[in-house]
Amino acid sequence: MRSSLLVSFTLLAASALQAGPVFLELRPAVELRGNVVRVGDVAEVVSGSDPAVLAVELAQAPHPGRALRLTRARVRGTLASKGFDPNRVRLRGARSAVVTAEITRLDPLALRSLATRFLTDELARRYELAVPVRVSAPDEPWVVPIGRERSELHVRWRVAPGAEAPREALLEVVVTLDGVERAAQTLLGRVQLPEPEPTPEPQPASAQVAPAVTAAPARGTRRDPAAVVHQGQRVRTKVQVGALTVFGEGVATTDGALDGVIGVQVATGPVREARVTGPGSVEILGAGAPQ
Residues in the chain with pLDDT < 70? Predict the structure, then answer.
């Protein structure tokens, strides 16, 4: 048995010695999707095989409109610092790789619509106000990078509101790539608040105020037992815009079961058809941009 183990070790050592080096060829230009530049993004394998080499991280991805130049010497130095033998991993091809971010352009009107819906819904939720709002928009399409795995578009308060509804609000539209925020755009929202109501004059003591009459709720209304979304319920909406996923809110106009199609009233647009994806969640159908 000892001799068989010795033979096996000898064969493994011989095969390791016979394995040739890994030859990589550096590309001159790369459009990167994602947050991190890896060896596999800027170089391709010409001969040999070592998946661990291609997974080595070289740098953070450049922001839109900027370029990152990675020279052969820098790539070799990074591989050496990660423990790869320069005699086993050889690099040729371009003297340097120029890396730029893969981008998409978002319509300014779509951005304004998304931010307007957020501001309208937030005013209704925080202050129980349904008032006209007007949000600014970029002068040109907004250039944002695209993630390797996923990209999402969100709106949030740039300055947290106080106890009273603001007349002006700063909103921030944020692009998230692979879970990391990489781009943001600040928009200004103007809120048309109602004028304060005049103080009513006191009535004479002899005046009798008729009691308020409230309408009785309608009878016989039944809800679908299979429905996970109900008419009048506020729902979380999802819209796919190219490589971006845009989230928002709306109000269901009908009941709907899982995977069923219902109508959803969005804050700044018409009633849209949507597929029910879960309790309180829908996906807008037939939408190429947020409405």
Answer: 1-20, 196-224, 242-243, 267-269, 287-291
**In the β-sheet with 43-47, what is the strand arrangement from edge to edge?**
43-47, 22-26, 89-93
| Residue 212: exposure state from Cβ atoms within 10 A (0-12, 13-18, ≥19) | exposed
Q: Would you state the structure tokens that stand for residue 35, as one six-digit string?
A: 């947050």
In the chain, % helix, strand, coil (3-state, to 5) comes to: 20, 40, 40
Let me know how long the chain is: 291
**Which residue from 78, 95, 76, 90 is spatially nearest to 29, judged by alpha carbons?**
95
Strand-pair category, 22-26 with 29-32: unpaired
pLDDT of res. 288: 55
What gap in Å lies between CA 175 and CA 155, rounded to an integer?
9
pLDDT for 154: 92
Two tokens, residue 52: 């661990």
Spatial contact of 90 and 75, defined as CB atoms under 8 Å apart:
no
d(CA 15, CA 181): 46
For residue 97, give the nearest of 64, 127, 73 by alpha carbon: 73
Are 176 and 151 spatial neighbours (Cβ–Cβ below 8 Å)? Answer: yes
Phi, psi dihedral angles at 73 (to 5 degrees):
-60, -40
**pTM for the whole structure:** 0.55
- The pLDDT score that the predictor gives to residue 161 is 84
